[in-house]
Write a structure and sequence with these properties.
Blueprint lengths: L6 E4 L4 E8 L2 E4 L9 E2 L1 E4 L5 E3 L1 H17 L7 E3 L10 E4 L4 E4 H14 L7 E6 L5 H13 L4 E6 H12 L4 E9 L4 E9 L2 E10 L4 H20 L3 H4 L2 H21 L5 E5 L18 E5 H25 L7 E7 L6 H10 L4 E2 L7 H10 L6 H6 L6 E6 L3 E2 L3 E8 L11 E6 L9 E2 L5 E6 L5 E9 L5 E2 L1 E2 L2 E6 L13 E8 L4 E6 L11 E9 L11 E9 L12 E9 L12 E8 L5 E7 L4 E5 L11 H17 L3 H17 L3 H50 L1 H6 L4 H21 L2 H23 L5 H9 L9 H16 L6 H9 L13
Parallel strand pairs: 1-10, 10-11, 12-17, 17-18, 19-27, 20-28
Antiparallel strand pairs: 1-2, 2-3, 2-4, 5-6, 5-7, 8-9, 12-13, 13-14, 15-16, 19-21, 21-24, 22-23, 22-25, 25-26, 25-28, 29-30, 29-32, 31-34, 32-33, 34-35, 35-36
Helix pairs in contact: 1-7, 2-3, 4-10, 5-7, 5-8, 8-9, 12-13, 12-14, 13-14, 14-16, 14-17, 16-17, 18-19, 19-20
C-alpha cells in the first residue's frame, strides 16, 4: 500500500513514458523493446485486438505503404498524433472495429499499455499535459485516464514536471529558469523562479500546434515531394488533396529518418528500395528516392519553425521584463531539442546557459513521479489495497521539504483484530544516522518530528512493538521525504484568462472580459467571482424561460477581443426549472467559478433578488474544427483587412496559411492549426491597428483632460457659482487629480480600455460643470437639431428617442432648460458611438 501517488506518466504526442518513485528516486519503466519510451501509436488488427507502441508504429508504416497501391483512404487502422486533437470533435475511423474512436479513447489505450509495464496495480496517477492545454483538452485527458481504469488522477503541466525533475538535482537553487519544451506535437515555454528549493512558475506561453510533427511535414514538403516531382510524373497526385495526403503520410517515416540522422551527422543520404513506394507515376514508373541532404539544407528548411518557438520564448521573457541574460538555466525538454540546429539558435538568441544535463525524453515522466510523491493517495483507495493481516497505520507527512526537520502524524487504524494495548513505535532514517525515541502509539494521531538529510531522498522505517517489545508487522512501514524542494502542489498557474463576453459601451462592441480572480498566471486552485451580470429579460419560475452565459478562455492581451478569437469552453444555462421564484428583468446574477489543480471547473450561480443559489454541472463543449469553406472565408477577410492596413508581414503569413489549407485542408489537425494561427494573425492585426490609432487617442484624451482642468480651475475661482449649484470645487479638484494619476499610467502602458473609461469619467465631470455654468441653455439648439434631423439619424431605439425628444421640446416651451441636461444625455446614448456629439464642448 502506498501513502503517496508516486506514479507519473508523460502522455506525449509522439512518445509516452511512465515512472515511479522507488527508494526516493524516479525510475522509468522500460517498454517491450527495452527503451525508456513507448510510441503513442495505436493499431487494431483484423481480429479487433489492440496494438500499442512500436508494434503499432510498424503496422502503421506497412499500412501507409499499402495505401499507395490504391490511393484510397478509409482503410487505416493505425492512429498516432491524436493528442493534437484532444478536446475536439474529431473522430478516427477504424475499419477493423467498424467504429469511430475519439482522441481520448485512443489515449486511453496508450495509458493501458503503460500500466502493463508495471508489476503492481495502479489506481492513482499524475498525468502530464502541455501548459497551454485548453479546458476541453484537460477534460479529455482526465476522461482518458478514467477509461484506462485510473481512479485518482491529477494533471500536471509538462514544463512544471520538467522543472521539478531538474530542481531536485540542480546545483543552482535560486534564480530564473526557462523550460523550453519542444515536443512531438506541442511547444511550451515556462518561466520558473527558484528560491532555495521552492519553485514558482511565473508565466507560461506556447503553441499547441507546433512540434516535431511540423518538422516532419516541413521536411516532406521541402525535400521529399519536390524530389519525386522532379524525377517522376506525380503532378496528378499533388493536385488531388486526398492523394497528396496519402503520399505525404507514407513519406513521413523517411522524414523522421532524415531528421534523426542529421541530429548527429553533417549530411545523410536517403535511399529507398524498389517496392518501398509501391505506386506508378504518370509514365508507369515506380518511384525510388536517392537523395542527399546536408545539415545546412535542413537548417534552412526547419529554422523558421524553431524560430517560431524562440520568438514565443523571447516574447515571454520580454513581458516579464527579462532577457536571456537573466536566465540561470534553459532546460531542454522533448526529442526535437536534441537538434544541434535548435541548440545553436537558442545559445545565440536566448542564452548560452542551455542545460543538457537531463534527458529531454524522460525528464517529464521523472518530474511527474517526483510531483506524485508529494500527493496523498485518497483514503478510499488506500482502504481498497490494505493488507488487513497486518497492523494498519495512518501516516501523514509532507512529501517534500526544504526544512531541517518535518512533523509526521502517525496513528493506528483500529480493526476487530487489533489489540491497541501498550503499542509503541520507533521511526528511523534509512541511512541509520537518525532515529526517534520510542513513543506510545494509539488511535489518536501522534506528531513526531523527524530530521532530514539535506538534498537527499530521506527514507524512514517504522517499527511497531507490543507490550513485550515484540515486533508487529505493520502497513505502511516506510515513508519518504524529499529534501531540497517544496511547494510543488502550488507551482502551477492558469495558462489562460477565464471570462465572459461583455458589452464594451465605449467601443460599441462585445468582447472578452476576464473574470476577477481567474486571470492568466493565477495560482491553482483559483476562485473567480463575476458580479457584473444582469438578466436581460424576466425568467418565470418552473418554465422554459432561460438565461445563457457563455464562458470563454482568452490568452494574453485578450481583454476586449472578439469572441471568435477566444476558446468557447461551455454555455452556462439557467432555466425557470432551476429557480423557486420569478426573476425580474435586470435582476443581478453572481457567478463563482472554482478551478482545481487539474484545470477542472465547478460553477455556483447566486440570485440575490430571491436569495437563492445553485451549483451547475459543467458540460464542456468539444472544440469544432472549422470547415474548409469557413476557413477560406475567414482567411480571405483577414487578408483584405491586412492589405487595407498595408500590413505586408501579416498578408504574407495569411497567404501561407491559405496555401497550407489548399494543400492539406482535408486533415482536421491542419484545420485546427490554421484556425489557431488565423486567430493569432487577427489579434496581431488588431494590435497594430490600435498602435496606429494610438496617437489620436492620446491627443483626444489629453484635450479632454485640459478642458476639465480649465473648468475645475474656473469653478475654484468662482465660489458663488459653486455654492449656487451645490458643487464642491475641492471635491471636483481631487477627482480630477486622481484621474490625472490614472491617466498618466494608462498612457504609459498604452491601455486603450483604461483611456476610454477615464474619458467617460472626465466627460461626467465636464457635464456637471458645463450644465452649472450654462444653466442648461447649451442644450436647446441640440434638441432642436435632433428634432429637425430625426429621420437622418440611425437611432438604436427610434421609439424611445422620439419620446425623449418630445419631452425635451416640452421643457424648452415651458422655459425649463435646467431639466434638459439629463434628457439630452439619455437621447445621446441612443445614437451610434461614432455619431454621438460631445454636448459639452
Amino acid at each position: 500500500m502506498r501513502n503517496k501517488i508516486d506514479f507519473g506518466i508523460d502522455l506525449g504526442t509522439t512518445n509516452s513514458a511512465i515512472a515511479c518513485m522507488q527508494n526516493g528516486t524516479p525510475k522509468i519503466f522500460k517498454a517491450d523493446d527495452q527503451k525508456d519510451i513507448t510510441p503513442s501509436c495505436v493499431s487494431f488488427n483484423r481480429m479487433g485486438a489492440v496494438l500499442v507502441g512500436q508494434t503499432a508504429v510498424n503496422t502503421g508504416n506497412n499500412e501507409a505503404v499499402y495505401a499507395l497501391r490504391s490511393f484510397k483512404e478509409g482503410n487505416s487502422n493505425t492512429f498516432k498524433e491524436f493528442k493534437r486533437t484532444m478536446g475536439t470533435s474529431v473522430l478516427y475511423k477504424s475499419s477493423h472495429l467498424n467504429k469511430e474512436l475519439s482522441s481520448k479513447e485512443l489515449s486511453a489505450e496508450v495509458l493501458k499499455k503503460l500500466k502493463t509495464l508495471v508489476e503492481e496495480n495502479i489506481s492513482s496517477v499524475v498525468i502530464t499535459i502541455p501548459a497551454k492545454f485548453s479546458n476541453q483538452q484537460c477534460e479529455d485527458t482526465m476522461q482518458a485516464a478514467k477509461l484506462a481504469g485510473f481512479k485518482q488522477v491529477r494533471l500536471l503541466q509538462e514544463p512544471v514536471a520538467a522543472a521539478t525533475a531538474y530542481g531536485l538535482d540542480a546545483n543552482t537553487q535560486r534564480g530564473y529558469w526557462l523550460v523550453f519544451d519542444f515536443g512531438g506535437g506541442t511547444f511550451d515555454a515556462a518561466l520558473v523562479k527558484a528560491e532555495e528549493g521552492i519553485l514558482v512558475v511565473k508565466d507560461t506561453e506556447g503553441d499547441n500546434w507546433l512540434g516535431g510533427k511540423n518538422l516532419d511535414e516541413k521536411i516532406t514538403e521541402t525535400f521529399l515531394l519536390p524530389y519525386l516531382k522532379e524525377h517522376y510524373d506525380i503532378q496528378f497526385i499533388l493536385d488531388d488533396s486526398n492523394k497528396r495526403s496519402i503520399l505525404s503520410n507514407a513519406l513521413k517515416r523517411y522524414a523522421e529518418e532524415v531528421k534523426n540522422q542529421l541530429s548527429f551527422k553533417n549530411d545523410y543520404s536517403l535511399v529507398t528500395n524498389l517496392g518501398d513506394l509501391p505506386f506508378e507515376d504518370g509514365n508507369g514508373e515506380e518511384p525510388e528516392i536517392d537523395l542527399k541532404i546536408t545539415t545546412d539544407q535542413l537548417e534552412e528548411a526547419i529554422k523558421p519553425l524553431f524560430q517560431k518557438a524562440i520568438d514565443i520564448t523571447l516574447g515571454l521573457l520580454k513581458r516579464n521584463n527579462l532577457t536571456g541574460a537573466d536566465l540561470d538555466k534553459l532546460i531542454l525538454v522533448g526529442g526535437p531539442t536534441f537538434s544541434p540546429i535548435l541548440r545553436k539558435m537558442l545559445k545565440e538568441q536566448v542564452t548560452p546557459n542551455v542545460d543538457t544535463s537531463v534527458d529531454p525524453m524522460t525528464v517529464v515522466a521523472r518530474g511527474a513521479a517526483l510531483f506524485a510523491s508529494s500527493i496523498d493517495v485518497e483514503d478510499t483507495l488506500k482502504n481498497e489495497t490494505r493488507d488487513h493481516s497486518k497492523l494498519q497505520l495512518d501516516i501523514k507527512y509532507e512529501g517534500t521539504s526544504v526544512e531541517e526537520t518535518e512533523l509526521v502524524s502517525i496513528k493506528v487504524i483500529p480493526s476487530n483484530n487489533t489489540d491497541l494495548t501498550d503499542l509503541s513505535a520507533e521511526i528511523s532514517r534509512g541511512d541509520g544516522a537518525w532515529s526517534s525515541n520510542r513513543f506510545k502509539l494509539t488511535e489518536k494521531a501522534k506528531l513526531q518530528e523527524v530530521t532530514l538529510e539535506p538534498k537527499k531522498a530521506n527514507i524512514f522505517n517504522v517499527v511497531v512493538y507490543d507490550s513485550h517489545s515484540n515486533r508487529i508487522e505493520c502497513e505502511p512501514n516506510t515513508f519518504t521525504i524529499l529534501h531540497g524542494m517544496s511547494g510543488l502542489d502550488s507551482m502551477q498557474v492558469l495558462p489562460y484568462h477565464i471570462g465572459i463576453i461583455k458589452y464594451f459601451s465605449d467601443e460599441e462592441k462585445e468582447g472578452f472580459f476576464p473574470i476577477n480572480g481567474l486571470s492568466k498566471n493565477t495560482r491553482y486552485p483559483a476562485v473567480g467571482i463575476c458580479d457584473e451580470l444582469k438578466i436581460s429579460q424576466a425568467i418565470k419560475a418552473a418554465s422554459t424561460d432561460s438565461l445563457l452565459i457563455p464562458i470563454y478562455q482568452g490568452d494574453y492581451n485578450a481583454e476586449g477581443s472578439d469572441a471568435r478569437l477566444n476558446n468557447h469552453i461551455f454555455d452556462l444555462k439557467i432555466t425557470g426549472n432551476d429557480i423557486p421564484e420569478n426573476l425580474h428583468e435586470n435582476s443581478p446574477v453572481r457567478l463563482t467559478i472554482k478551478v482545481n489543480e487539474s484545470s477542472l471547473m465547478t460553477v455556483t450561480i447566486d440570485f440575490p433578488e430571491i436569495n437563492f443559489s445553485i451549483e451547475k454541472e459543467i458540460q464542456i463543449r468539444p472544440i469544432e474544427p472549422l470547415s474548409i469553406e469557413d476557413l477560406n472565408k475567414d482567411l480571405g477577410e483577414a487578408q483584405k483587412t491586412a492589405k487595407k492596413l498595408e500590413l505586408g508581414e501579416n498578408v504574407t503569413k495569411l497567404e501561407q496559411l491559405q496555401q497550407e489549407l489548399d494543400n492539406n485542408g482535408n486533415n482536421p489537425d491542419t484545420r485546427l492549426r490554421i484556425q489557431n494561427e488565423w486567430r493569432k494573425e487577427l489579434q496581431d492585426i488588431s494590435a497594430k491597428r490600435d498602435e496606429a490609432e494610438w496617437p489620436k487617442l492620446e491627443k483626444d484624451i489629453k484635450e479632454k483632460f485640459f478642458l476639465v482642468d480649465d473648468l475645475v480651475n474656473n469653478l475654484k475661482k468662482n465660489p458663488q457659482l459653486a455654492e449656487e449649484n451645490n458643487l464642491s470645487a475641492d471635491h471636483l479638484f481631487a477627482a480630477k487629480e486622481e484621474i490625472k494619476q490614472k491617466l498618466d499610467k494608462a498612457i504609459e502602458k498604452k491601455d486603450r480600455l483604461a483611456i476610454k473609461q477615464l474619458g467617460s469619467e472626465l466627460f461626467a465631470i465636464q457635464m456637471v460643470l458645463v450644465v452649472a455654468m450654462s444653466g442648461g441653455a447649451v442644450f436647446v439648439d441640440v434638441v432642436r437639431s435632433w428634432d429637425r434631423d430625426f429621420n437622418k439619424i440611425n437611432w438604436t431605439n427610434p421609439t424611445k428617442a422620439r419620446e425623449l425628444i418630445n419631452k425635451a421640446l416640452v421643457c424648452i416651451s415651458n422655459g425649463n432648460t435646467q431639466a434638459l441636461n439629463s434628457l439630452c444625455f439619455e437621447i445621446r446614448d441612443l445614437m451610434p458611438q461614432k455619431d454621438r456629439p460631445n454636448l459639452l464642448r
